Amino acid sequence: MIKRILVTGGAGFLGSHLCERLVAQGHDVVCLDNFFTSQKSNIEHLLDCRNFELLRHDVTQPILLEVDEIYNLACPAAPGHYQFNPIKTLKTSVLGAINMLGLAKRVRAKIFHASTSEVYGDPDVHPQPESYRGNVNPIGPRACYDEGKRCAETLMFDYHRQNKVNIRVVRIFNTYGPRMHPYDGRVVSNFIRQALSGEPITLYGDGSQTRSFCYVDDLIDGFLKLMAAPDDLTGPVNIGNPHEFTIRELAEKVVARVGGASRIVQARELPPDDPKQRKPDITLARTRLGWEPRVPLDQGLAKTIDYFRGIEFAKFRPPTPNF
Ligand code: NAD
Ligand code: UDP
User: Residue 95 CB: number of other CB atoms within 10 A?
Assistant: First the structure.
């Protein structure tokens, strides 16, 4: 059945891939974005599709739209982006969730919320199952993002319990792929950009901290499965790739694949509250959604490197001040 679907943050890295998939399925897609961390080039190829519509709007302000489903992705996601204006980040998570849940309640739409593995903070349980309540510093530099996302989850479940809103909460673990912003400061984009430009590869700390990297196509499969799942599967559901790598291993893989002369250097101390390890327990997604990632890191890196080779870094700007 063709649905009217709103995607907030739809011009971003993940949002643009999601819009692409929903448009290809024939749905009537409204992409809402304020372009804080993205640019139109991410969705340029969709602008001529008759079932795609672009709205410049900020989720901290209410909006009324007649839709059947909402994917709420609007929020800066990279540490450099979300720490640029931390108060705005909190407003985006919290007021954005309130506005989208209010809309979902009013028009009886099903709402999907993009939460994050950051709700686990610097985890002392490894790998992280959904039942783990996390180890977040509420007053550190990452708190605007982590606590904003935790509060948004609370809002989702309170609207569900109090107003019977049909919700889906996904906890996304580090995801990479084409259309990552080349200056977002995230590890995959930094390392590939540095390797392609022949600059030093900047390890933070000694590179022994770990992350588990999911290729974007796998993640979007998980989103679509969760949205289509039976209504009792509210989540939260972890979606991510459980193959864990140290950041040094990632640097070595990128250098080997790009070639060139880049050296791996220890550029700075580990940033404050930087999680030392992260790996999803995806038992719930496997058993309830029949989902698991298919794209191995080497294959996903090759596709991402191809994308970065094809863009002009000078055409990308850093976040706009937006208070
Ligand atoms: P992104 O920065 O590329 O996309 C976010 C989009 O939201 C951008 O287009 C941005 O302009 C828009 N936006 C920001 N504030 C807004 C506002 N106030 N109003 C309207 N639009 C706004 O990041 P992404 O990686 O695509 O992340 C998408 C979502 O997934 C985010 O909610 C993020 O927290 C979550 N997530 C991503 C990852 C990951 O590894 N990529 C991991 C965990 C969670
Ligand atoms: N990192 C790094 N060099 C960089 C950028 C990041 O060593 O140029 C490290 C960072 O300190 C963290 C890991 O890579 O330990 C992942 O960082 P990212 O910002 O991509 O995501 P997050 O910390 O939110 O998982």
Answer: 18
